[in-house]
Amino acid sequence: CVQPGLFAWEVYVDILVLTSGGNLLDSISLALCAALMETVLPKVEVLEAMEEGEVVQLRVNDRPEAGTPFPLRRLPLCVTVAQIQQRFLFDVTSEEELCADAMLCVVVDAKSGEVMGLHKLGRGLFDLAALPSMLQRCRAAAAALMQQLERELSLKDHS
Q1: Which of these, 144, 147, 150, 153, lies nearest to 79 by C-alpha position?
Q2: For the segment 88-130, what is each residue's pLDDT rounded down to a tens digit?
Q3: How far apart, in whole angstroms, are the C-alpha atoms of residue 32 and residue 121?
Q4: First-to-last CA distance in the chain?
Q5: What would the 3-class secondary structure string for the chain be?
Q6: Cα angle at 154 between 149 and 158, to 5 degrees?
Q7: Contact call for residues 30 and 145 (beta carbons, < 8 A)
Q8: Domain map of the chain by residue range?
Q9: Which UniProt keywords apply (predicted)?
Q10: What is 76-157's CATH number?
């Protein structure tokens, strides 16, 4: 928020998928988190009106070093689980997706490990008895993805 009740940032994200080898939601959420973690908002100052009726103006400093990092309170990462008979697979290919009896997309806040949402994909029934252990594995997968992403971003910053 630049000035409460008056100016705030509004962010839109467009994603263009050129090809998919499976696990599309997971890939998109990871790319989105990476992009937002690297986003720097320009420094904006609100210049108060000098006279009554004058329009409030904004002064924008778009130098990256003057900006502030995008305020990410949560990092939602999708971790999709495919069930094939009694087995559960992570990071599935498009061929494995076609063979799956059921699929479940678990959205995990990579910062806190909290499960933010569940979405059943496609047809079939997911074994609910396996859900508690599956959610724990999804939390671990999200944490591992986050560690890898942070390593990659820190390597980029040092090069």
Answers
A1: 144
A2: 999 999 999 999 999 999 999 998 999 999 999 988 888 889 9
A3: 21
A4: 32
A5: CCECCCECCCCCCCCCCCCCCCCHHHHHHHHHHHHHHCCEECEEEEECCCCCCCCCEEEEECCHHHCEECCCCCCEEEEEEEEECCEEEECCCHHHHHHCCEEEEEEEECCCCCEEEEEEECCCCCCHHHHHHHHHHHHHHHHHHHHHHHHHHHHHHHC
A6: 150
A7: yes
A8: 76-157
A9: Cytoplasm, Exosome
A10: 3.30.230.70
> CA 138, CA 46: separation in Å to the nearest integer?
43
Indicate the length of the chain as a whole number: 159
Q: Measured between alpha carbons, how far is residue 79 from residues 12, 58, 63, 73, 147 in Å?
A: 23, 41, 36, 19, 15
Residue carrying the six token digits 């320009």: 42
pLDDT value of position 159: 66
Give Cα 154 to chain centroid, integer Å: 18
